[in-house]
Amino acid sequence: MTTLKFLLAALSLGLASCSLQKVTSSAQPTAFLTSSGTNTSEKIRRLPFDHSWKNNSVDLSQYKRVVIRPVTTAYLHKEEWMDSYSVYVPDAPTYVKQCNELARHFSSAMRRSFSTRGSRLALTDSTAGRGTLVIEAALTEVTFGRPEGYVGSMALPGGSLINSAAASPVNAFELKVKDAATGKLVATVADRRGTRLKIVDFNQLTYDKANQEICDEWSQQLMQATNKDLFPQVKRTWFSAF
User: Lower CB density within 10 Å: C or N end of the chain?
Assistant: First the structure.
């Protein structure tokens, strides 16, 4: 078994050049987050996000339900669409369309996570009454990957060239949690993330699956963040076999 673990580890290192490198820089906060007035450099140690803040004057135990608003793409830097340029994202309008699809996926993923047995909060669509939180989120950066086989250079509109192997899937998001009855800010979160390393990465055959997986992982972690009893430490998965 020890030999097998060693071989898997060695193989993962050998394939690292074919996978997304670890994202080491945090995204610059957009107006979505800065408008909240919170210190965006704060971080709660038990959470795996670049930024996390909780209003210490709020008793979280009073909340029993959560409303999840549709994820917005209004704060995306849409002029950076060329970082995702491929046959699947040939122009800016297509990029915006695919980002909107990813935002809908993120919204659905959060609803699924907060509908599981591990969620301390019950998912609802009603903001009436006390004890309800509202989650508002924004995708602030999206770079789609390029399917395997795109190598060398590709021509961009206008005649310029880009290295087709340069794009790796990256997402960034920002999130605000509010009291549904009063509108009081309860918490904020932000993160920028690439995909985990994989021994066999079938996502290299697609342009958006890796981005969806990032949103899926965020959704699970956000749910876990609300249940400290069951999830005293919320962890990120850095590596998987597939």
Answer: N
The answer to whether 139 touches 172, Cβ cutoff 8 Å, is yes
Beta-bridge partner residues of 65: 122, 132
pLDDT cut 70: percent of the chain above it: 75
Contact 40, 29 (CB under 8 A): yes
pLDDT at 24: 55
* Tokens, residue 109: 């993923």
Q: Which of 176, 197, 194, 193 is nearest to 185 (CA)?
A: 176
How many residues are recorded in the chain?
242
| DSSP state, residue 25 | S
| Cα 72 from Cα 137, distance rounded (Å) | 7
CA distances from 161 to 145, 157, 204 (A): 17, 9, 22
pLDDT in tens, 84-106: 998 899 999 999 999 999 999 99
Q: Which amino acid is at 134?
A: V
Instruction: Give how far the C-alpha of residue 181 lies from the chain's centroid of Cα atoms, to the nearest Å.
Output: 27
- Long-range contacts of residues 88-96, Cβ cutoff 8 Å, at least 24 apart: 88/144, 88/147, 88/207, 88/208, 89/144, 89/207, 91/157, 95/144
